Amino acid sequence: MNILTAAQTRQLDQATIKEQHTTSTALMERAATALASWLLRHYPPQVAGEVLLLCGPGNNGGDGLALARLLFGADYAVRLALLPADKYSDDYQYNHHVLPKTIPVSELSAGALPSIQPGTLVVDALFGTGLTRPLTGQAAAVVAHLNESGARVVAVDMPSGLLADAPQPDPAAPVVRATHTVSFGLPKLAFLLPQNAEFVGEWHVEDIGLSANFIAQADTPWHLTQLPAATPRPDVALPRRTKFAYKNTFGHALLLAGSRGKVGAAVLAAGACLRGGVGLLTVAVPGCGYDIIQTTRPEAMCLADAQADFISALPATKPYQAIGIGPGLGQDVASRAVLEKLLRETQVPLVIDADALNMLGEHRDLLDLLPENTVLTPHIGEFARLTEKTKDDYHRLDLLRAFAQQHRCLVVLKGAYTAVAAPDGHVYFNTTGNPGMGTGGSGDVLTGLLLALRADQRLAPLLAVRLAVLAHGHAGDLAAADTGEAGLVAGDLVQHIGPALRQLE
């Protein structure tokens, strides 16, 4: 799914109107109907109590007016507070004209702010994606008053004051802190970034029949990777195994991992690689890890390094279709030499994680040796060590795209909406996963799963990475359903990889 800019979102409305021979008023009615349906599901009249709708002078306010009419007809206790302006949109004026006269209406001003009790349900329909500057004056006073009230807030399309695809020009300017944000057709880029979480709350997307052609053809670097619903989709489909396939069909992977005290990372990554469907797996570990791997992962072959505490030598790489390095590797100078030799001597697909990433960060000259389509899996801190400290999440996205393009690699920037950056500058945000996955070893599991799918020669590099990230998060969701988020450990992810991949076949 493509993620559009604010300007493209406005163009999408116009394309829908033209393509479907409808009107902007009819499209607004669809939006209001979708909002009313969402509220009926989540906040029915007996739960919602009093509903206060704050409406601005544009089409976002028009959505609010149309919604007020529909909620009033569904027996909600509705009242309206309108922000005065010199000019109102045509659709706002139409919906104001057809508003039932019995709905209480007041005018907003800095000196006459509406009463908002903590139990009130407030619908924020002040400003949407058309906003291009910080809120000031009466609008700023209203938003500050709302934020101080402690009320439940449902934002229409966007929390007022938040820009859809750019950082806030004035961080001190007020932005609505929504409990829920209900967007139409598509989420906004702003929803996916940590710095906006306090404003967006929990976001939802309601289908209002916007032009699928325009969305599919939009020129944008931002995309969303989602689980298929009823039927598989080609963009996230794992090929089924044929009857006569055998272990060599799915590749032979080499995993270099572990050091004294960190062999568990090798165990987790190896388990994920095996559960990810690799045909053959060889795990290279320091001498202290040999018995551990042989005991915990008997399905894997094991190469024990001559050094007991760390990996000091690179095994022959010719037999392998993909190589992973980093989980629990440690920072010994000999292990860094292994990484450098690997980069200089092999051209097979690589997956680089954890300590190996930190070595690259300390010796950035090694980045020039990365084979094309190498997969790097940094979290935000590791990415900063590879690049630079960032001013905000948007700056980080700029650096992410530039890094992937410069080094012709695939970067998996881990987080709540893990972002996969491709060498062509496109970025794919993942939608699976949960906070319970913020636990030691979760990244090692992802590395193993990535290694398995990169060894599978049936998959193109970008598809393999997107599938691995999607399945990793989904395994976390399946595990959390069993254990709860607080009780989830990385080993639970390994056990749920099979069911997660099955849904992608």
From TrEMBL:
Its cofactor is K(+); Mg(2+). It comes from the Bacteria. Keywords: ATP-binding, Isomerase, Lyase, Metal-binding, Multifunctional enzyme, NAD, NADP, Nucleotide-binding, Potassium. Residues 230-504 form the YjeF C-terminal domain. K(+) binds at residues 60, 124, 160. One of its GO terms (molecular function) is ATP binding. Residues 9-216 form the YjeF N-terminal domain. (6S)-NADPHX binds at residues 59-63, 128-134, 157, 265, 328, 379, 444. In the N-terminal section; belongs to the NnrE/AIBP family. Homotetramer. NCBIfam families: yjeF_cterm, yjeF_nterm. This is Bifunctional NAD(P)H-hydrate repair enzyme. It comes from Hymenobacter ginkgonis. The gene is nnrE.
